Amino acid sequence: MTNLSQALLNPRRIALIGASADQARLTARPQRYLRRHGYTGALFAVNPRSPTLLGQPAFATLDAIPGEIDFAYILLGTEAVEAQVAACAARRIPVACILADGFAEAGPEGQALQARVVAVARAGGMRLLGPNSMGVVNLRARTALTTNAALEAESLVAGRVALVSQSGSMMGALLSRGAARGLGFSHLIGTGNEADLTAGEIASMLLDDADVDVICLFLEALRAPEHLAAAARKAHALGKPIIALKLGRSPFGAELATSHTGALAGSDAAAAAFFRAHGILRVTMLEALLELPALVAGQRPPPRTHRAVGVMTTTGGGGALAVDALGVLGIEARKPDASAAALLDAEKLPHHGRLLDMTLAGTRPDRVMAGLAGLRAAHDTDLVLAVVGSSAQFRPKDAVGGIIEGAKITGKPVAVFLAPEAEASLRLLAEAGIAAFRTPEGAADAIRAFCDWRAPMQAPPAETPNITVPEAPDEAAARALFAHLGLPSDAVVMRHDAPPGLRYPVALKILSPDLPHKTDVGGVTLHIADAETLTHEAAAMRARVAAAAPEARLTGWLVQPMARGLAEAILGFRRDPEVGPVVLLGAGGVLAELHRDITLRLAPVDLATAREMIGEVLGLKPLTGWRNLPLGDLEALALAVVAVSRLAALEGIAEAEINPLIIGRAGEGVTVADAWVVCRAAFPSPATVAV
Amino acid sequence: MTNLSQALLNPRRIALIGASADQARLTARPQRYLRRHGYTGALFAVNPRSPTLLGQPAFATLDAIPGEIDFAYILLGTEAVEAQVAACAARRIPVACILADGFAEAGPEGQALQARVVAVARAGGMRLLGPNSMGVVNLRARTALTTNAALEAESLVAGRVALVSQSGSMMGALLSRGAARGLGFSHLIGTGNEADLTAGEIASMLLDDADVDVICLFLEALRAPEHLAAAARKAHALGKPIIALKLGRSPFGAELATSHTGALAGSDAAAAAFFRAHGILRVTMLEALLELPALVAGQRPPPRTHRAVGVMTTTGGGGALAVDALGVLGIEARKPDASAAALLDAEKLPHHGRLLDMTLAGTRPDRVMAGLAGLRAAHDTDLVLAVVGSSAQFRPKDAVGGIIEGAKITGKPVAVFLAPEAEASLRLLAEAGIAAFRTPEGAADAIRAFCDWRAPMQAPPAETPNITVPEAPDEAAARALFAHLGLPSDAVVMRHDAPPGLRYPVALKILSPDLPHKTDVGGVTLHIADAETLTHEAAAMRARVAAAAPEARLTGWLVQPMARGLAEAILGFRRDPEVGPVVLLGAGGVLAELHRDITLRLAPVDLATAREMIGEVLGLKPLTGWRNLPLGDLEALALAVVAVSRLAALEGIAEAEINPLIIGRAGEGVTVADAWVVCRAAFPSPATVAV
Q1: Which of A118, A310, B7, B231 has an alpha carbon within 20 to 30 A of B653's alpha carbon?
Q2: Contact at 8 Å (CB) between A403 and A328?
Q3: What pLDDT does residue B262 have?
């Protein structure tokens, strides 16, 4: 452990700046909680108005504290923070944590204040946790350095799962929910605004702790994705999974996360692509966040998954409920394959269909073990879900004993869903380290995350395209860029007269860096039959456009053969404010737009990923030979996706799009029918897209 | 109450046929549970091998029991059931309940056995509950007439919510989950296979009970939809809501429900249409099934809803989690409108954006009441969700006291989501009759159901079309049927030569009752320019089709003008095996098919419903003036939907489809481009579609 991580995660000398003498106040909590839960290090309360606090001598100022300090928790109001950060930095304290809010999330003034506070800390070589941080709890070291009321609990359960949460209150909610289930944490860390220390950096530090097996993240926004990506790679190398629950799946939620944290919201699809690419398990339900650690601790992602499970049950209705919840998320409950069936037959366990119904076989532990062993032997499932009925409520040891014994044998992961209210069974399963769910939806959410889990992606070799793009590119410049990336254009720039050697009919478009929507100003004419018409139409178009958009710079015309193909696609690149460069592929046309038939990945991508993306766009399915329709040149499309994704390396490019990209028959390639590029300088506020 | 409902729901003289002397056995449970929970009526155990059972004299046969019997629970194995049903019927017992399985769900033999058992009962004027029924629990009368192990509980909480469950085990699971929350039931009834008594009939009886406010249904299949529809109308008249959780949302779940219950599965979309049409609230999560009664008890569906809620919170992260979960289901957390804002301002409660964050205002009950009153005053929301943070765990009375007091004032419904584990707060809220959720997903599921809730639909006046359709209709017959319904055809039947007066170009199709897919056998030719070509092509087509499908009856050709329009639709009618006649509308074309861009309703529909359906098909949006595209004749389309939905009244029609229906510009109408009809006699097994 570094000095920083030692000071942050296991501080031995703590200053509480602004600790209150009034025990009922929030700011008295850290001192109370540290004592209550048995903190063994040194504690220094700073309060100029109280000589003693909770019976201990207090200090009038930070400087009055003798010796080194590992960690200062600044509990004062927003207006007092800046001076205290400066004082901490002056004392060379490695980490200060800020409780107050009113920083980046509170508008421009708060943003400026936050920037100043960070600058002061950095100048002094000090790291900051927060603002808006509820502090750090290290349950193994009994360090409850927090304002979170969940620490009012009389006793705490220590475990091997660390939680990093941007929300202080959810940190407490998860602690209490876990405790009620017998699930403990190793650490709870509230990162708040992450003005300096980010969830990713802290996750990296936690991974070094031998007492941490799994890291859970509760995120409102993705900040510093490169830190989180580095943590994810480290986690994979160490075999310590990272699980994330991130808000913003709905537009309303995304808007709220933004206003709540002061961060810019990216798209949820981009966040999903980020988690997937970096091997982070993403869940959507609190129950899944709490239970999934038991399912994945000590494991690495399987090389491939079947997105299928075996299900055994002692309740028909409960089993069906679980199968349905799984099916809604696209996970199939599969009937036993030949290997599984052979084992079940040998044990005289009747089976047919998607549920191994143990009701008739009896729920004796040895029978349950046999059923479990049978289903785990299947070669076409990823795990086994055991559903338990009323016995879980009244005979917990019988009901889950067989599952617990069976799960001790090495093999496919086992998870449990309990249909009735069954606290004792839940507790037995928690003690045995088996993921056990109260809701079929929570089980399905966790199982889906498990089935989607992949090793962190290797970014394809980064090769920066050697090309300069004008600050205000017109379509010709955009086409030149795409041509450089390997997507040649068959359009010709016309500055005055019709160029020779054109293959008619052609399309004519006005060229301007100021007109992304040429059609709206009469800047596009299709099906021009010959050179004479072309010359005539070019002049007419220039006059038309100049009248419609008098301030637009007109740089010429673009002439291109009328392209025909089987279908159209949209191929785009942009920098997501949260996760950075992404490449998007969608079906073209009005209907595809209405259906939001789009997939995306972190850019750049390799050819295999590009092919995977093509498979995810429903509107491209007709090109795959579906219903005997002609095959499209999907290989050329995949190469185009790879090419466009390489824009990630061109820092100056903010956004780019080919729309439509026309897909020819197999072997005919693809044609860039329209293209545009936006440079970063052209963005209203370039700072907002910088990572 | 009728004699039947008295005997079923509140039996005073019960026979337990096959009660076991071995207390550990399932079949000993009813006797044990009836005693344990204080049944005050007369109990007669029938067991030829034991003179006494649980210390009471037993009877060797049913006939040995003196006096009347209200209810006989047959606890014997499948093979003994038929004889016992006959014995019960002979004694004129009003209701017998069958525990055994192995009937309709077990294949043809079981189906035959079930049919015989029902016939025997009906012949004796006796009604049957089950097979596969866990019996009847009347908690208010302390009648625990069940084999369900959940009754092992030492005490039971009686409430005003009745549960009817096709799954016996889920009946117990819901009882135990409710009890843990302090939520009691009035009745629990396991209907199993519903060979005779259906969930709908039983719901109707329960509605007559003054102690029942709400009915919850746990359904694996929809049987006898007319019974359930009648119950729903009665429920609406009485202001007693019905809430349903039905399995089968995923294909795997639907398959399982089928194999588990022996019922034929219809589509989930049809089930959803059924619930919606009849004013039944549909939820998907167990928590929503348990909590929604508190939200809707004593209410009728609002005339319209905003699909929007106000949200107040004492936890930023927890509030954001709830807003996100709601947003995923399409429910907007809306910021206070002018009325709400005025009240909040008057109380000096700061508000901005979608969350009324009470963290700063303090969580004192009077402040919470003021916040609640403010949000409830909004005119553009349907209810208020209060999210509570850590105070719910450690200061339950403070945390939820304000909510409980505030909710006593008449106004918009109030629901609560508790972010931490907070049993005491949950219990206080349950006692106060306020819906309180542990999961944001459960809250969102219940709130969505509430927002979707509508009064039962009035079926449009039923007017049976007076037309006879041939048993094996070809396309000409199908077109004649649609023309009779008001959708004229511009196609002409050709028996030999080209008919005079055609408007060329035309399309030519082979006519045959045996060839639904004419294209596959070369039976369609488009763009025929003149009469000579037509005559020649007709002969060639006949030869081609005869060669490709030698057994098909060829009845002539159909000639129709080449139709053009703005877009294509699919308009269909079928009889869903669960809910009966439905009308489907979808966008035409390959992409729409890939996206399953379809909506459906119970048939027949009125014009308003048809217009609503058009609004739900994404692929028809371009016809609404979207992006300045030309307007389509959606009024003609709506009339076509109404016309096709009238097929519901023609009992002989199994399925019908117009695909494509070509939609012209506004005022141009719609054109039937292809049509087919399947008569019910042509179905492989007509009985399976009978309701």
Answers
A1: B231
A2: no
A3: 60
Residue B686, token pair as written in the block: 């007509």
Residue B325 phi, psi (nearest 5): -65, -40
Chosen from A163, A216, A287, A421 to mutate, greatest number of chain B CBs within 10 A: A421
Location of structure tokens 């249904």: B217
Q: Residue B259: is it exposed, middle or buried by C-beta count within 10 angstroms (0-12/13-18/19+)? A: middle
The 8-class DSSP code of residue A611 comes to H
For residue range A249-271, list pLDDT tens digits in order: 998 888 877 666 566 667 899 99
Average pLDDT over residues A112-125: 97
Residues of chain B predicted below pLDDT 70: 1, 258-265, 361-362, 462, 681-691
Instruction: Indicate the length of chain B as a whole number.
Output: 691
A358, amino acid identity: M
Question: For residues A437 and A429, is the Cβ–Cβ distance under 8 A?
Answer: no
Rounded to 10 deg, the angle between the A199-207 and A225-238 helix axes is 20
Q: What is the CA radius of gyration of chain A?
A: 30
Residue spans of beta strands (DSSP E) within B247-344: 281-283, 308-313, 332-333
Residue A361's pLDDT band, with cuts at 50, 70 and 90, is: low
CA–CA separation, B377 and B218 (whole Å): 35
Q: How many CB atoms sit inside 10 A of residue A50's CB? A: 16
Q: Could you tell me if A325 and B252 are in contact, meaning their C-beta atoms sit under 8 angstroms apart?
A: no
Q: Do the Cβ atoms of A420 and B320 come within 8 Å?
A: no
Work out the average pLDDT over A67-88.
97
User: Letter for the amino acid at B314?
Assistant: T
Cα three-residue angle A52-A57-A60, rounded to 5 degrees = 80
Say whether residue B260 is in contact with chain A using an 8 A CB cutoff. yes
pLDDT for the residue A591: 78
Q: What is the mean predicted confidence (pLDDT) over A651-670?
A: 94
pLDDT for position B281:
98
Q: Which tokens in the block code for residue A139?
A: 């349950």
Percent of chain A with pLDDT over 90: 83
Q: Which is it for strands B13-17 and B71-74: parallel, antiparallel or unpaired? A: parallel
Residues 573-612 on B with a CB inside 8 Å of A are 587, 589-592, 594-595, 597
Tokens (6 digits) for B205: 């009886």
Nearest chain B residue to A101, by CA? B360
Q: Mean per-residue pLDDT for A75-103?
A: 97
Say whether the peptide bond before residue A561 is cis (omega within 30 degrees of 0). no
A492 three-class SS: strand
Q: Which chain B residue has the Cα nearest residue A318?
A: B170
First to last CA, chain B: 27
Confidence at residue A682, expressed as pLDDT on a 0 to 100 scale:
46
Cβ neighbors of A336 (< 8 A, separation 6 or more) are: A310, A344, A351, A356, A374, A375, A378
- For B382-418, the DSSP string reads SEEEEEE-THHHH-HHHHHHHHHHHHHSSSS-EEEEE
Identify the closest residue of chain A to B440 by CA–CA distance. A285
Q: Do A592 and B591 touch (CB under 8 A)?
A: yes
Whole-angstrom distance, CA of residue B60 vs CA of residue B470: 60
Residue A431 makes CB contacts below 8 A (sequence gap 6+) with A182
According to DSSP H, which parts of B487-633 are helical? 531-548, 590-594, 607-616
Contacts of B287 in chain A (CB under 8 A): 439
Query: For residue A251, what is the nearest residue in chain B, using CA coordinates?
Result: B327
A658 phi, psi to nearest 5 deg:
-110, 115
Q: Is the pLDDT of residue A356 over 50?
A: yes
pLDDT digits (tens, 9 = 90+) for B58-97: 999 999 999 999 999 999 999 999 999 999 999 999 999 9
d(CA B494, CA B496): 6
Task: List, in sequence order, the alpha helices (H) in A439-507.
Answer: 440-452, 475-484
